[in-house]
Structures are given as structure tokens and as C-alpha cells.
Amino acid sequence: MKAKLGLALACAALLGAPAFAQQDFSAVEIQTIPVADGLYMLLGSGGNIALSVGDDGAFIVDTQYAPLSDKIRAAIRAVGGDDVRFVFNTHFHGDHTGGNENFGKAGATIMAQDNVQTRLSTEQVSTLDGSTTPPAPAAAIPVVTYPERLTFHWNGNTVNFFHAPNAHTDGDSIVHYTNLNAFHMGDTFFNGGYPFIDVGAGGSLAGIVAAAREVLGRTNAATKIIPGHGNLATQADLRNYLEIMSTIEQRIQSLIDQSRSEDEVVAADPTSEWDATWGTGFMNAETFTRLAYQSMAR
User: CA–CA separation, 6 vs 284, rounded Å?
Assistant: First the structure.
């Protein structure tokens, strides 16, 4: 029961379930962190936002929660930006898409991978407790989508979006600001913590590992990486994350090959070395291990 409760709470947080979304946002402050020329990371509550400002206008990746939209707009104006022209969603979870409706109604064009449009357009049923999330309002749903790759030219930059299949979800995108040597990895990368693998939405540990490996191969020592959650990262941070995720994947696979059950895999504690530092947030070691096992054993 304890494991199921922890898993449900983790999912509620990331999916933006009503009980979580009623938190007090009045004390939340938006922090603005420079990443590269005209590119910033905005931290508030929910998933990290990437902000591009320049002659073409403001372009953001992800929107956090709806009550924070005015604070996000103020942070954009503070660095010389104006009305948001484009929004891109890295995936469908409410802590990354909650502000979509506000920005969409204000005139922003919303973009995402195909599966994000599908999931936001339809009722989502939790495989954990059967609870449902209704379809998003029309103004919150992406109107430009892509299957595998999309190139966007904005503020003097070439921005490449590419699908990371079945990683955090089935609709994850990674954003590469090629001119600026920078990435936004969405929730395929939790910097300094165990990632949430949304198994019910097609997520898998194998996809998490593949996404990290794909991005790492495009980086160098000067690359800046915006994670879905956590501090602005470097190539070394991503390499460390990949090594840990790969090691855990190999350990769990070995246990599966020995016909160990989910409870037996949890009891084997395949994450023990990192639990004290990586398992102290909303995604604890047991919950992460169970999700990883489920994604690998299905």
C-alpha cells in the first residue's frame, strides 16, 4: 500500500491532478537563469521553461501551471521580451502544459510532438488508480505537431525538435538550439534525481537511457542543458545521469533474466548507491525501481 500511495502522489504531481494543482502559487517566484545569448531558463513550480527572446519575439518551451502565467510574462518582459509568439511542449503533463490555455488565448501558437496533441485532446485514465484527467481546453492543445523531427528558425537560431520515443512518455521531445550549443531535454532528464517513468503513457527506462545517450553524443564541454527538473546542467551532469541510468537498467535486466518478481527486484535494491542523494524528492527509490521494472518486464 505504501508503494502504491507514493506512486500515486508522484503521478498526481507531474500530471497536474486537481489536489496538487490547488497548491498555493502566490509565494512562487520565477527565477531567470542565463543559458546563452538570448536564451534563458525559467524556474518556478513545475517543469523548467526555456525562453528565447530576440527580434522575432518571445518563444517558450513549456508553460508550468496556469496560475503562474502572469509571473512568467513578467519574467519575460524583464529580459526584454514581449508577448509570447510560440509555445512548444516537451510532453503532455500538466506541470509543463498547465499554462498553455493562457498563452494560447493570448495569441501564441502551440506546438508539440504528435502524441502530445492526442493525449491533450482526449481523456487520460491513470493505470494506477483509474482516476481520469479530462481533455484540455481547445486553446491549450497544440495546433502544429510533428512525428519525428521539426526545424524552427527563430531569433536568429536554428532550433531542432526531435522525438525521444517511449522515454518519460510516448510524446517526449528534445529541443536543440544548434547555434547556441544548448538543449532542453524535458522530463527525459531529471538533473540530480530519479526520473518519473510514466509507464501508463508509454514511458520506459530504455527510452530514458536512449534519449540521454542521443543528446550526450551531440554535446561538448561547453554545452548547456535545461533539464525537465533540476538545475541547469552540463555535459558532465548528463554523462553522470546516463551512467547511473544505464547501470540500474543493467541490474534490473539481470534480475528479470533470473525470473525475479517486481517485489524481489525492489528488495534487491538495485539503486542503493544513489538513494541518499537521488531518492529524497517526490520520486523515491522504490517507486522509481517499480516503474523501471514495469517498463522492462511488459
Answer: 8
